[in-house]
Structure to design on (122 residues):
C-alpha cells in the first residue's frame, strides 16, 4: 500500500502490563513515516534508496525532503486512517485497524509461550 504514491511504515506503541493473563494497552498516538520519493516498480528505479526507506535520518538528506507538504515526512495515525477511509471506505479503514490489532495480539500470544518457558527454567 502506498499513500500519494509513497511507501510508508507505522510506529505503533504497545504496552504489556501482564503476561498472565495477557494485558495489553495500545497507544493511539502512533505515527507513519513516509519515503520522500514516489514508489516505482521499474527495474532501473529499484536502487533508489529514498524510494524504499522511510527512516528520517536517511530521508532528510534527500533534496525534496519536506517539500511534499508532509513536513518531516511523518503523519499521526489518524490522518492515515482518514485517507484510507476517503479512498477505500470506512469499512476498509476499520478493517485495516482491526487487522493491525490482531497482528499485535498474535505476535504477543506467540511470545507469551516463550516467556512462560523462560520463567520455568529460572
Amino acid at each position: 500500500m502506498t499513500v500519494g504514491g509513497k511507501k510508508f511504515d507505522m510506529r505503533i506503541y504497545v504496552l504489556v502490563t501482564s503476561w498472565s493473563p495477557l494485558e495489553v494497552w495500545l497507544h493511539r498516538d502512533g505515527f507513519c513515516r513516509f519515503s520522500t520519493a514516489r514508489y516505482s516498480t521499474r527495474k532501473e528505479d529499484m536502487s533508489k534508496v529514498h524510494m524504499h526507506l522511510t527512516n528520517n535520518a536517511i530521508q532528510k538528506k534527500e533534496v525534496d525532503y519536506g517539500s511534499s507538504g508532509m513536513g518531516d515526512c511523518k503523519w499521526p495515525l489518524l490522518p492515515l486512517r482518514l485517507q484510507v477511509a476517503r479512498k477505500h471506505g470506512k469499512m476498509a479503514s476499520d478493517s485495516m485497524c482491526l487487522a493491525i490489532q490482531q497482528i499485535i495480539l498474535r505476535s504477543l500470544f506467540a511470545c507469551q509461550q516463550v516467556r512462560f518457558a523462560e520463567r520455568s527454567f529460572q
